[in-house]
Amino acid sequence: MPIYEYRCLECGKRSSVLTKSVGQEVEAQCSHCASANMRRLISSFAHHKSVATIHQESGPPPGYADPNYYSDPRNIGRNVEESFRKHGMDVPDSVQETIKAARDGDLPKGMDL
User: Fold this and answer.
1) Dist CA 93 CA 69 (whole Å)
2) CB atoms closer than 10 angstroms to residue 103
3) How far is 40 from 26, CA to CA, in rounded Å?
4) Cystine design at 63: which of 3, 14, 18, 69 (Cβ 3.0–4.6 Å)?
5) CA-to-CA distance for 11 and 89, rounded, in angstroms?
6) What does pTM read for this prediction?
């Protein structure tokens, strides 16, 4: 569903019009003063990336290429801890306990190193 932007030639304010399809006739009306004297604007567009593309572009986590990276128990959970820090959040106790247990060799079911 495209969104078109218009500038009102009466009050000068911008209004957006949502349409159901690209080919739909649009009769724009100012959402501020209700004037129909509108000029269509060239607006920017959004481009969304897939999760796969984001992962591909960001590359592997630091040290991941080294096959022995996770042999060092200190590296288990580092990416999770860093993500929480980066967002200014404390790591929840349950997550800290899981990471500590993994570092001590007690991995969650179904996980092998």
Assistant:
1) 25
2) 16
3) 10
4) 69
5) 45
6) 0.39
The rounded distance, in Å, linking the Cα atoms of 106 and 16 is 55
Q: Which residue has the tokens 């990416």?
A: 79
Which position has the token pair 């991941």?
64
Q: Write the CB contacts of 29 (distance below 8 Å, at least 6 apart in sequence).
A: 15, 35, 36, 38
**DSSP code for 80:** H
Distance, in Å, from the CA atom of 63 to the CA atom of 65, rounded to the nearest integer, reads 5
Task: Please count the CA atoms within 13 angstroms of the CA of 93 that sit on its side-chain side.
Answer: 0
Instruction: State which amino acid sits at residue 72.
Output: D
Who's near 16: CB < 8 A, 6+ residues apart?
3, 4, 5, 6, 31
What pLDDT shows up at residue 46?
Answer: 66
Residues in the chain: 113
Between CA 18 and CA 4 the distance in angstroms is 6
